[in-house]
Design a protein that fits this description.
By secondary structure, the chain is an alpha/beta fold. The protein has helices spanning 19-27, 48-58, 73-85, 98-110, 115-124, 130-135; strands spanning 5-6, 11-14, 32-35, 61-64, 90-93. β1 and β2 form a beta hairpin.
C-alpha cells in the first residue's frame, strides 16, 4: 500500500499509488483522488485512466491536474477548487508526493493563507516547501 501523508484535515499527499491503493484510500476516508503525474512519465506507472476507473469503481471522485516542468497559477487554482468542492478529504499523488505537496502549498499561498502555517503543515508531512514559498513572495 502507498504511503498517505496527511497535510491537514482536507488534504493528504502520496507517492505514486496503485490501483489497489484506491480501495485503501477509500477505506482511509478519502472521497477524492487527484493525479498530479502526467501519463507516460515512467513506463511502470499506472496510467491516469486506470486510476480513474478504480476510483469510479470505489465510489471516489478523480481529477487529473498533471504537473511537469513547473507549477502554474491555473494548476494551483484547479487543485484549490477540487479541495474546496470535495465533500471530505482529498488525496493528491505524483511520483514522490513532492509535486502534490508543492502544488497544494502554492494553492494555499495564492489564496492568501499564512505562509508560515503552510510551511509548518508541509514540514510535518516531511516536505520543505520554503523554496517555493520564497518564490511567491513569502
Amino acid at each position: 500500500m502507498g504511503e498517505f501523508r496527511r497535510i491537514d484535515d482536507r488534504v493528504s499527499v502520496a507517492p505514486q499509488i496503485s490501483v489497489a491503493d484506491v480501495g485503501a484510500a477509500r477505506d482511509a476516508g478519502f472521497v477524492c483522488i487527484v493525479n498530479n503525474r502526467p501519463d507516460g512519465e515512467a513506463p511502470d506507472e499506472p496510467q491516469g485512466a486506470e486510476i480513474a476507473a478504480a476510483c469510479a469503481e470505489a465510489g471516489l471522485t478523480y481529477h487529473a491536474i498533471p504537473v511537469a516542468g513547473g507549477f502554474s497559477p491555473e494548476q494551483a487554482a484547479a487543485l484549490r477548487d477540487v479541495i474546496d468542492g470535495a465533500n471530505g478529504p482529498v488525496l493528491a499523488y505524483c511520483r514522490s508526493g513532492t509535486r502534490s505537496c508543492f502544488l497544494w502549498a502554492l494553492s494555499e499561498a495564492l489564496a492568501g493563507d499564512d505562509t508560515d502555517e503552510i510551511a509548518a503543515k508541509a514540514s510535518a508531512a516531511g516536505y520543505d516547501v520554503t523554496p517555493l514559498l520564497n518564490q511567491v513572495g513569502r
